[in-house]
Amino acid sequence: QVQLVESGGGLVQAGGSLRLSCAASGSIFSINDMGWYRQAPGNQRELVAIIISGGRTNYADSVKGRFTISRDNAKNTAYLQMNSLKPEDTAVYYCKATMRESWYTPFRDYWGQGTQVTVSS
Length: 121
Description:
Helix content is 0%, strand content 56%. It is mainly beta. Strands 2, 4, 5, 6, 9, 10 and 11 form a 7-stranded mixed sheet that branches.
């Protein structure tokens, strides 16, 4: 069984920082991209940042210059460093990874359970 486990969420004041982690475990043959999404109450889930296997990254305009995504391939773990946090960053943050469990199975998306990030003003 493949699973993603997020950690690092919490409550922080505006202007502060948090670092989220997403660890993939289980029967993993390869990981293509890993990304972070967020969903605030009443809103749709949106892409925050994504990093592909070659290291190329992409960010939502709202977080460019403040958030940094990275990954440790040896640990099958992705990170999201969030600086200069704003109240509008408050949301549940979800990790997604596109992985396959063997060379003959297709890539599919896996989601973590989500971690709450709350930024107070």
